[in-house]
Amino acid sequence: MHKLDWKKSLPIGSVAIAGVMLMGTAFAGGFFIGNSRVAASLVPSAAVPPPNADFSDVWKAWSVIDEKFVGAAVASSTPIASSTEEINQKRIWGMIGGLAASLDDPYTFFLPPAENEEFVSEMSGSFEGIGMEIAVRDQVLTVVSPLKGTPAERAGLKAGDLILNIDGVSTTGLDVTSAVKKIRGPKGTQVTLTISREGWSTPREIKVTRDVINVPAVVTTLRSDGIFVIEVATFTANAPDLFRAALREFVESKSSRLILDMRGNPGGYLEAAVDMASWFLPSGKVIVTEDYAGHSANVVHRSLGYDIFNENLKMVILVDRGSASASEILADALRYHGKGMLVGANTFGKGSVQ
């Protein structure tokens, strides 16, 4: 067995992560998830109305609602005299959500403050739900991957499953944000999903009991044959620090053979994938390019140049149908630069950054 030498010492300080999943833009107390450059353009430094947009219809509609709308809880036909500050704010969030929805991009949507808090909670690695990543693919709500050790995995849900109903209600036309709200819930409660799967003649109902989901972002194992395994389950905010610690364990094990297991990894922060790739690549090597097809300047993400391993490293990268987004970026960057061999099945194919 070859000894694995370090090219340079491992930094002791934690790695800073500046970004959102994968890129996002804070907006008026809420949050945009979407193509990073497009989302950024929605928040100009000076909030000036676009010159070619006529907002008169918006304010006309606002006035008509004020004058004519009668809430369901109001027994009489008397119009509501005025809107409260809370109702007005809700309307504004709805308008921003509609603006994002008008892009017809399943990965671009707006999160009001309450939903944003849930999102931040999830990306910190802990939330209540069933533990799976979902996306809208070909206009159908689809399981990207159930997270390992979660109720979703234990219930038998698999990458590529089509979610037709949630608690008996059709998911047709349902966006990801709305679907997440329906699927999540307090620990101990149950959600029923109607699932269509390749190879099944008819859809089946799968009942899943919700629980607290503590996402094990990085898990390490030293096998009896001397091969060191690092499982990366998701790219949460703290994943780079956990990955750094895992690499330290690998080096201390004196093994030169590494399996990087990203099967079932649905993705997460783009910056986390860039940081992890940097442990294997010289400074400046391209990890991924965001291509805007001429609508904006491309963004190239390059290695930060930690590059601690020499040619004695023998690495295999495991992927499967549930590997998506940031895990695809990391896996292919390492393959492209000759740092490891890809083994497994075709990945999910989420070729977008948001």
From TrEMBL:
<keyword id="KW-0472">Membrane</keyword>
<feature type="domain" description="PDZ">
    <location>
        <begin position="124"/>
        <end position="184"/>
    </location>
</feature>
<keyword id="KW-0812">Transmembrane</keyword>
<dbReference type="InterPro" id="IPR004447">
    <property type="entry name" value="Peptidase_S41A"/>
</dbReference>
<dbReference type="InterPro" id="IPR001478">
    <property type="entry name" value="PDZ"/>
</dbReference>
<comment type="similarity">
    <text>Belongs to the peptidase S41A family.</text>
</comment>
<dbReference type="InterPro" id="IPR029045">
    <property type="entry name" value="ClpP/crotonase-like_dom_sf"/>
</dbReference>
<feature type="transmembrane region" description="Helical">
    <location>
        <begin position="12"/>
        <end position="33"/>
    </location>
</feature>
<dbReference type="InterPro" id="IPR036034">
    <property type="entry name" value="PDZ_sf"/>
</dbReference>
<dbReference type="InterPro" id="IPR041489">
    <property type="entry name" value="PDZ_6"/>
</dbReference>
<keyword id="KW-0720">Serine protease</keyword>
<dbReference type="InterPro" id="IPR005151">
    <property type="entry name" value="Tail-specific_protease"/>
</dbReference>
<dbReference type="GO" id="GO:0030288">
    <property type="term" value="C:outer membrane-bounded periplasmic space"/>
</dbReference>
<dbReference type="GO" id="GO:0008236">
    <property type="term" value="F:serine-type peptidase activity"/>
</dbReference>
<dbReference type="GO" id="GO:0006508">
    <property type="term" value="P:proteolysis"/>
</dbReference>
<dbReference type="Pfam" id="PF17820">
    <property type="entry name" value="PDZ_6"/>
</dbReference>
<dbReference type="Pfam" id="PF03572">
    <property type="entry name" value="Peptidase_S41"/>
</dbReference>
<keyword id="KW-1133">Transmembrane helix</keyword>
<keyword id="KW-0645">Protease</keyword>
<protein>
    <recommendedName>
        <fullName>PDZ domain-containing protein</fullName>
    </recommendedName>
</protein>
<keyword id="KW-0378">Hydrolase</keyword>
<dbReference type="GO" id="GO:0004175">
    <property type="term" value="F:endopeptidase activity"/>
</dbReference>
<dbReference type="GO" id="GO:0007165">
    <property type="term" value="P:signal transduction"/>
</dbReference>
